[in-house]
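Q: Can I see a sequence and its folded structure?
A: Here is a first one.
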Amino acid sequence: MKKNLTSICFSLGAASFSYAQSVAPAYSIAPWFNDKKAAVSLTFDDGISGQFAIAVPLLNQYGFTSTFFITPGILTSQLIKDKLIADAAKAGHEIANHSLTHPHFDSIAPADITSEIIQSNEAIKKYTRPGQSLTHAYPFGEGGQETEKGLQIRSIIKQYFIGARATRNKVIPFNDYHFAREPDDYFKINSDIIADSASMAEFTTHLDATISSGGWYVPCYHGIENGWLIVPKENFQMELQALQERKEMVWIATFENVLKYHRQRNCTKLRGTAENNDSWILELRDTLNNEATWNHPLTIHLKLNGRKVKSIRQGNKKILFIISPNEMIFNAVPGRNKIIVTKDK
């Protein structure tokens, strides 16, 4: 996927509107979707059969979506024949890129890296019909390091993806909220490998530390019951139960969606464009200039300053909202579609 950086400019005629009250609305954008304190993305590497035969049904049972970074060149024929990958995609799980054959990116030429990720993307499209991988996990974690080769690998990955996951490239096992000081940081997101020796106590410790910091925890699994770095089904189910017990505090979502929210949130502004006695018109815009890709809704807290609200919509879509003391809370997608707040007189 090559990103389209064309920006689109537009204007709204407002002959009968007053601009005075709506130039600078008082608002904030929640750090995480739906005001959750922290985010968790469960990720799985390689495409081992137990991930789809065992983990996916359990994830579906709990209502959690996750990310499967698959390596098409090592998938079993039975996995493809039974369409378990396609079924996972239909259930809302992200099927993402982990190269075609899982080579050491440190040891191959740039052209071969490009070939690996392009061929993997083409296979993913066939399995998910018509899925599009927007994120990548480096084979062996090689791509997140601060070396000349690491920089070279990331320069290639950036041409096709919106972000990438490394493995244990930081001291702490999670990403603190302000992990992305610059765009390159979205291509070396840290993950915590859940090995066969990992304990339930370690998982909950890391999870609770993430919640306390307001960060993003990205556990990385391999084998579930079979394969390598095996996590028994019972252990995995206990980890899901730990998440279930904390779901009021944690946003559990795919790697792609959490990445989108974080990056959009930190480069988006809300402004008023017009207002009269009946309506208040707002514009939510980011600086990413690609609405087709950057399309995750953001959670907005908007001060009402005495206004009463009857309804809200964005484009032709009605938006649900909550009124708390002197503010309205709602989810909206940055882009060209105006947010229309209809007042209750």
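Q: Show me another, different protein.
A: A second, unrelated one:
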Amino acid sequence: MVVVTGGAGFIGSAVIEKLNSEGINDIIVVDHLGEDEKWKNLVNLSYEDYMDRDEFLELVFDGDLGKEINCVIHMGACSSTTEKDSNYLMYNNYKYTRHLIEWSLENNIHFIYASSAATYGNGEFGFRDDYLTTEQLQPQNMYGYSKHMLDKWAIKNNLIDGIVGLKFFNVFGPNEYHKGYMRSVVHKAYEQILETGEMKLFKSDHPDYEDGCQMRDFVYVKDVANVIWWLFINRDVTGLFNLGTGKARTWLDLVKAVFDSMQKNANITFIDMPDKLKGKYQYYTQADMTKLLSAGYDLPFFSLEDAVFDYIRNYLMTTNKYL
């Protein structure tokens, strides 16, 4: 039995779709559905049971799950980089994960969890996923700090080499529709272009980057699911890993790919960056993928253009937008 926390969410539901495609359906989905529409991410998926996140943790503490679990894929978290409730972030992203790691290790359960490239802060220490670099990092927002605390805790207590942590870079793709402000720029651009015929991007507030030339490592959610599947079957591979493409691209590259996929001429304007993002904005991210590739992962990643095309033409422009 496999547990996928955050299973109704963006990456979690993509992971379940991948497990289903490999013939695995004995899955417990753990999430908190709330009032948004992420439940729609579950409609096309096959799984055995659903549990609320708090119910699941209570059963873990009570030792009363009643099922033999062999793997926990922990994608559940608050992923909002602008979340202000620090206590919520500390509980949801740090303490909850600690409880699951301790329980998994005590019961010899394979454990894979979501960290984040937000832990790298402004990138002054680079983007290497080695443990020495991790100790030095200075995240720029509370979300990144909550993830960073968990990574540091696992390293300090010599637990990280018994589990898998994944530092996700800029993930985009199907099933992110419920995420509101936190949706990818691909999805926001698609809707904005449909409505207005143009796309607005933030001006640069950094002298080293021209408007639209801020750079990120954009990674397609299908590639993320492929990596997690590989780690699921190669259980001897453990540690903390970056998960991006290893190739930084500009926001202009991304948005032009959206226009091309929609068969429209590019029409881009620049607007001032909101004050709440100034000083907390990552101008450059690029995953150093050496560690994962050295561990044996050898599947090719989608190019940015191919990923955007697949997302728009095979999902956003169709009647069934879900994996």
